[in-house]
Amino acid sequence: MAKIIVVTSGKGGVGKTTSAAAIATGLALRGNKTVVIDFDVGLRNLDLIMGCERRVVYDLVNVIQGEAGLSQALIRDKRVDNLHILPASQTRDKDALSQEGVEKVLETLGKDFDYILCDSPAGIERGAQLAMYFADEAIVVTNPEVSSVRDSDRILGLLASKTRRAERGEEPIKEHLLITRYNPGRVDSGDMLNLDDIREILAIDLIGLIPESEAVLRASNQGVPVTHDADSDAGQAYTDTVARLLGEDVPLRFHEYQKKSLLSRMFGGGRR
Amino acid sequence: MTVMELTSADPERIRDQLAGKLSQSPAFFQHTPVVLSVEKLDEPHLALERICAVCRAHKLLPVAVRGGPEPVKQSAWALGLGWFPPQEAARPRPLESVAPGEAESAADAAAEIEAPPGVSSGGRIYRGTVRSGQQVTSPEGDLVVVGSVNAGAEVLAAGSVHVYGALRGRALAGIHGDPLAGIFCRELHAELLSVAGNYKRLEDIDPCLLGTTVQVRLEGDQLGITPLA
């Protein structure tokens, strides 16, 4: 049975889709049969980030409504063999998704795949709730910013109450914190929230920290998940994240400001 | 100003209903000035003097009457009360014969929470982080949170609230009016603190106290926040 992982955040624009694409790619590169599902019905983006927008024929809503078979809607990634994408519909809205339909799709995919990543839409409404409902694990994407942290906190509350595991009283969803757009320089100057502050407020395990990087924007626009950019800091950070997701112990990188002056070394070292 | 909407002109019924409210939220009845609204009544004459006596007996101080026909207005003035014209387009709120209205104070919010029958007992222990959007209530006794209460979360208790972590959200103790209830936390960053309806917002809290371990108690009608050594 596949492991179902939801990538969620509450707040929009924090990097859910980028992270879902990068992590799915990383899992597949490590030899896991992986499918990534776009739950953002009406605002389809994952296909763009994955660079397969020209190959979309059928989508998740078609499958749920019985207009197409799952195998017809699944798109095979051009770069990695065992990676598939199930795109969202751009012309429908979130009401086109039914809980039974989603359950059936996940059940069928679960027989063939090792990992199912659900790329959640922003918000806490139907789309987001369906994306998280059947999850075994959750990656909560957070920017070092107060509003993002608060929204992530809200999502964590929903993960603990509005999911199948919670409703059935099963073992709770395993929650992971993924901090994106982290800029150690701006953290040092106080513009951004500190890593430790975020961890203290959200009180869950940190699975990865992705530095703010030009590579991410470039990757999005080229439709190549940033994991493929092995020379970039963000690419390496996602590779680390995937390794941790697979249970490996990888030290944290990219969280410290490199060019520290002597003075800030003397006075800034008190925190931690 | 608190408005008491009368749905009956019978002083005896008013007395009974006030007595019921009194047991729910005693703190609400501490010589609170009220406006008696008679808009919903269709009575040309009111035993206004007797109604006022009933109110005073329950530690409510009628200061004015709102609405009613000319004779009601005259008798209000005769009793030394003010008179307000009826409110146009009465808001569709659930009718209750004694409804705290207008004043959006925490006292009213507290008064609206149904009190359980019986004596305060049986607290509640919550382990884990109370997250934004979550509400944890202990309707009959103390609430102990072993963890933090995050911004946007709300913890409420009939008794005291104890937070063994950071308190960043709202904490309301003594929601049924217990003035002896308190709030205790390891790290104070609360958005709102309230004891028996008396509240303080984050803005009103002395910045020196933020981040420290404190207890919050009702001192007179003010919340006192003191560090816990």
Automatic annotation (TrEMBL), chain A:
One GO biological process term is: negative regulation of cell division
What's a Gene Ontology MF term here?
A: ATP hydrolysis activity
Any one of the GO CC terms: cytoplasmic side of plasma membrane
- InterPro entries found in the cross-reference section: AAA_dom (IPR025669), MinD (IPR010223), MinD_FleN (IPR025501), P-loop_NTPase (IPR027417), ParA/MinD_ATPase (IPR050625)
One Pfam assignment: AAA_31
For this protein, the record's SUPFAM superfamilies field holds: P-loop containing nucleoside triphosphate hydrolases
Xref: Gene3D superfamilies: P-loop containing nucleotide triphosphate hydrolases (3.40.50.300)
Query: Which sites bind ATP?
Result: K11, G12, G13, V14, G15, K16, T17, T18
Family stated for the protein in its record:
Belongs to the ParA family. MinD subfamily.
Q: What does this protein do?
A: ATPase required for the correct placement of the division site. Cell division inhibitors MinC and MinD act in concert to form an inhibitor capable of blocking formation of the polar Z ring septums. Rapidly oscillates between the poles of the cell to destabilize FtsZ filaments that have formed before they mature into polar Z rings.
Query: Quaternary form?
Result: Interacts with MinC and FtsZ.
Q: What is this protein called?
A: Septum site-determining protein MinD
Organism from which the protein derives: Halomonas campaniensis
Write the lineage as a comma-separated list. Bacteria, Pseudomonadati, Pseudomonadota, Gammaproteobacteria, Oceanospirillales
UniProtKB/TrEMBL annotation, chain B:
Q: Name one Pfam family in it.
A: MinC_N
Q: Which organism is it from?
A: Halomonas campaniensis
Annotated gene? minC
Compositional bias segments (type: Low complexity) = 99-117
- HAMAP family attached here? MinC (MF_00267)
Q: Does the record's keyword annotation contain Translocase?
A: no
Q: Which InterPro entries match?
A: CAP/MinC_C, MinC, MinC_C_sf, MinC_N, Septum_form_inhib_MinC_C
Spell out the PANTHER family in the cross-references. SEPTUM SITE-DETERMINING PROTEIN MINC
UniProt xrefs under Gene3D superfamilies: 2.160.20.70, 3.30.70.260
Could you tell me what this protein is called? Probable septum site-determining protein MinC
As for what it does, the entry says: Cell division inhibitor that blocks the formation of polar Z ring septums. Rapidly oscillates between the poles of the cell to destabilize FtsZ filaments that have formed before they mature into polar Z rings. Prevents FtsZ polymerization.
**Record-stated family:** Belongs to the MinC family.
Annotated Septum formation inhibitor MinC N-terminal domain residues: 1-62
Which superkingdom, per the lineage? Bacteria
Disordered: region residues: 97-120
- Keyword Cell division (UniProt): yes
Question: Sorted alphabetically, which keywords does the UniProt record give?
Answer: Cell cycle, Cell division, Septation
Domain Septum formation inhibitor MinC C-terminal: residue ranges: 125-225
The subunit field of the Swiss-Prot or TrEMBL record says:
Interacts with MinD and FtsZ.
Which GO annotations describe the biological process of this protein? cell morphogenesis; division septum assembly; regulation of cell division; regulation of cell septum assembly
